[in-house]
Design goal:
By secondary structure, this protein is mainly α. It has one domain. The protein has four helices and no strands.
């Protein structure tokens, strides 16, 4: 069921990268938010299942660090590439 979020994210990335109009880009960005939120929920479920005690806090810290740093790196890549390739590199 949670894999649907991943599929929504991938489809939204392609919609946003091929958007001919602003409205299509906006719709793709909204879908990206929905898909990425499902992925974050899935990450937390896996962490709770695999780790226990203080190890949970360390793994969640690492995951949150990646979620914070990744958009910054994508923006840096976007400055050097064409704008629509930012959405393709996220997949």
């Amino acid at each position: 069921m949670l894999n649907i979020g991943l599929y929504v994210f991938i489809a939204a990335s392609f919609v946003a990268s091929a958007a001919p109009y602003y409205e299509t880009l906006l719709l793709g960005r909204i879908e990206l938010g929905v898909g990425s939120s499902a992925a974050r929920i899935k990450d937390m479920i896996v962490v709770r299942d695999l780790f226990h005690g203080p190890q949970v806090a360390r793994v969640i810290f690492l995951i949150m660090t990646v979620f914070i740093i990744a958009p910054i790196l994508v923006q840096l890549v976007g400055q050097t590439l064409l704008w629509f390739l930012v959405f393709v590199t996220r997949v």
